[in-house]
Amino acid sequence: MAEIRCPNCGKKNSDLMEVCQFCQTPLKPDTDSVLRIGQTPTKKDTGELESVLPTWLKNVRQQARDSADDDAAQTAAQPKPEKDEPPDFLAGLVSQSSEAGDEEIPDWLASINPAAGSKPTAPPAGTAPATPEPESDFFAQFNRTEAAPISEVPQEAVPASPEHTEDRLPDSAEDELSKWFSQASEQPEEVVEIDPGAQRPGEAAWPGGFDSPLSSQQEPAPRESEDLSWLHNLEAASKETGELQSPKQGTDWKPGFEAPSASSRSQEDLSWLDNLGGVEETPQQASEQASARGEDLSWLNNLDAASTPQPFDAAPDKPLSAPPFTSDEDLSWLNNLGQTSEPSQPVEAASGIQSSHQEDLGWLNDLGGAPGTQSAPPFFESKSSAQAAPGPAAPFEKEELEAPDWLKSAMTESSTPPADDVSMDWFTSMDQPSDQAPAGGTEPSTPQPSPFSDVFSTSGEPPPASGQDVDSLFSVEMPDWLARSEPAADESVSGQSVLPPAARDESLAPVDLPSWVQAMRPMEAVISETAADTADEPEETEGPLAGLRGVIPGMAIGSSMRPKSISLKLQATDEQQASAALLEKILDSETSPRALSVPSFIASQQVLRRLLAGLFLIVLGTVIGLRSQMMPVSADLSAEGRAAALALARISDGARVLVVIDYEPSLAGEMEVIGGPLLDQMTLLRHPQLSFVSTSPNGSALVERLMTNTKISELGVEYHNLGFLPGGSAGVLGFVENPGVIMPASEVGKFSDYALLILMTDHAESGRVWVEQLQAQRVRQADPALTNQPLLVLASAQAGPLLQPYLSSGQITGMVSGLAEASRYELVNNSRPGTARSYWDAFGVGLMMAIALIVLGSLWSLFTGIRARRAEAEQG
Amino acid sequence: MLRVFTAALAIAAGIFVLLGYFYPEQLESLRLILVDWAIIIAGIAILVGIFNLAVVQMGKFSTRQKGGMYGLLLVISLFATFAAGVILGPENLYMRLAVDAVIVPVEASLMAILAVTLIYASIRLLRRRVDVVSVLFLVVALIFLFLVMPTPIGPIPGDRAMLDFLGMFSRGGARGLLIGIALGTLLTGLRVLFGVDRPYGGN
């Protein structure tokens, strides 16, 4: 049985099994899912993967589905807003809060509006879309939206708040505020689909700040009651003061923003708190929410003026929290609403980018000391101011009375010194140079507002101390390095010179850095130079770097600083230099001319040639001059010689014979010797009419020499020199086909009128041409007489072998080739003319000398060559 | 356009001449006319060549190049000989003297130098290159020279048989050369007929 190895554990399993018996891993890969190159991926439903998702993710997904369903249902049931109603900017908040709040409506709310309690999840579709007052409608929305976040926080810290509100509600049943509360609870909640992923920290969509916390599924029902509690407190406070008789028309929407914004702000406060320190302690959030409630409303002023950028959220996944601060001036209307006359102080930005301001640090001094001696932080102060206005401040009072534990701990165990410590000793304790401004707070000469401070505070207000805010917001367990680093940031904000990085590094406790970090550190010299030069650098006066030195290199424009001159000298060792010198010598020797040694080889060649030439001249001249005839000549003709003689005997007397002169003057001597005996014999026997034609321009000039040297002219033979026949083969063809037209002097009508054709040539090409043209005519049988026309060839010794094939094929009747055959033929011809015989002895002696010289010379050359190669081999 | 015209003309002439052999009754007269024109053109081409030779040599003389004097001598000789031949005729004594005393001895002397050079090369052959081919070539050459060489004692016995035997190789080689020449000539003619080669300047 085949076995399959598990890809996960590596153990062997039977091939029949689909999953591993050890680790339950599928053994057989899904080939369908394997995607190969060129294939189009198949679209699959990602819902199939839901089973493998972790539990927490499944819960989140389920909640998202439920909220989506709720939103869809609410949207469908949501009535259209009337035209008379002011635009509801925060309508989305209602739906968002309603999805969390609809599930669990607290009892106190239910007692207010029994209809709302009976419909925890679905919106009251049956209820007609009422036309409440704008304020009540708006508050009703936030009642539902904030029921979820608020209910969570007060459950632990302020559990009695819902009850308290409930107690108050019957008392002010006739109040308009109560009325719209009840009406608002009857209205269906708006469903707004929120995409937490689409929320970005930096976006300027301020409603998103409201939406994000509401869309958080992590904070459902518990916060809902909390939101309503403070609202009810606010209502109670307003009732006490009696100011809240009718909502302001001009700011109708503001009240609407107030409550939900505050409630949402509380959630947002908590969220950005979470983003700061990653702390999600609900008691701290609740206390912070309650304490910052008064100041939270101040941001609304900024919303009215311009869209403010959202603070950077260190945890984008978490709901984005709006900046929980307001200016004193902006809170005035809120004070009027909530019957508070004291403006709330801004709440420090929780992002950690804060500027130290002496005025705001006062409350920090109280944090380090006894709770009683501590001055209330700004948000606490606002809370107290809020309490002066019974209506809106009522929730704050309740929160203040029941401060959450986390806030108490922060107040008591703050790592920062008390806020009333004007001398800011806690800053000095961080080993920073004590060049701080008094705590009384002078305005910084070079204010350096942080990006977030611009959002959270007006230009007139100094930014709060960063360290104090961090301490107040974070848990007690704040690392020392963070606490110590804040004084350094505070000093820069206060307008003092920025410490160089080296100086700043001194504030940090020395830590044993790992080796690889130490290796990455820059050289100390560079650091020291950089640190030393920073003091001379100009101080930035504007922008976020105001007050800092050495941040931007202060190189003047057109600086006279020149780059360092780099030496072009190549750093080479002695060995390298020696090698370079040697290479240079070699290159010089290549280009420098060398004396050309004249070898003796060339001189010996010239001597040998001259010697050979002289030898031959002397010997052969002597032999010729002596007219020796010691070399016997054989009378045995060759077969082609005998055929030629026979062809001569067959012609008639006085027949026309065409003699073609196709040799060069250089071989005239040989050709005249070769042709002499045959022509003499023919002339003596048949007295033909000779016609000479030549395909070479020099041939026509050689006719006379031939006739003279062969002594044929002495025989009284009649000959005609037809001259030069141009055209090569075409000329031969034309002459053969129509000689009378091509050569009118030929005096023949057709070529067959010639009884014999004698071709005298020293090269085979001429012989081939004549043979081929004649054969073509013979084949064509244009002239049958051509078939019997003999062709005799008188060829030199070098052309004879190449014409042998034509002789063997019968295209050539007879041939006399070379001096040897010519001497034999001359001997047969009674030694006439006798020229061949005179050359015979010299020819023999010359051949003997040539053979001897070749043999001896070759042997000598062989010997010398071997010796030279041996010498070269020894040298090489 | 000229290229096409010349190519067409040359191809047409070649085709007519070729077809004239196969259809003598219809095209023989045209073939003969075309052949006559070719002979005339060839003759004129020689004169053009001689004229070009004179112009080049005169140009060398006029530009005072190296060998310009020889060019002048050549041109003078050319025109003098031409004039003498036209005037006196080729059978005149002086014309024959020019041929017998100048042309033939000069070319004969060059042929004699060739003989000495061949002997010298044969002597130096084994010094430059020693291999089977060179030795075989040298041996065969010596054998032929020996067989052909006349001796005081008369012909060498068996020289004819030996020559016939060795001639067999030469004849075979010669046939091969002739066949190759014939095939090459045929292919060249076909290339001209098909317009592949344009020796008349069509390329």
Low-pLDDT runs of chain A? 116-136, 145-170, 196-225, 247-268, 277-286, 304-329, 338-359, 368-400, 417-423, 430-465, 492-505
Number of helical segments of chain A?
36
Sheet/helix structural class of chain A: mainly alpha
CA(first)-CA(last) distance of chain A: 74 Å
Give your account of this protein's structure.
The complex is a heterodimer of chains A (876) and B (203). Helices cover 51% and strands 5% of the residues of chain A. Chain A is built from 36 helices and eight strands. In chain A, helix 5 packs parallel to helix 10 (253-277). The longest helix of chain A has 41 residues, at 835-875. The two termini of chain A are 74 Å apart. Chain B is mostly helical. Chain B has a domain at 1-88. Chain B is built from six helices and no strands. Chain B has helices at 2-22, 24-62, 68-88, 93-128, 132-148, 159-194. In chain B, helix 1 crosses helix 2 (24-62) and helix 1 packs across helix 6. The two termini of chain B are 12 Å apart. At the A-B interface, helix 27, helix 30, helix 31, helix 33 and helix 34 of A face helix 2, helix 4, helix 5 and helix 6 of B.
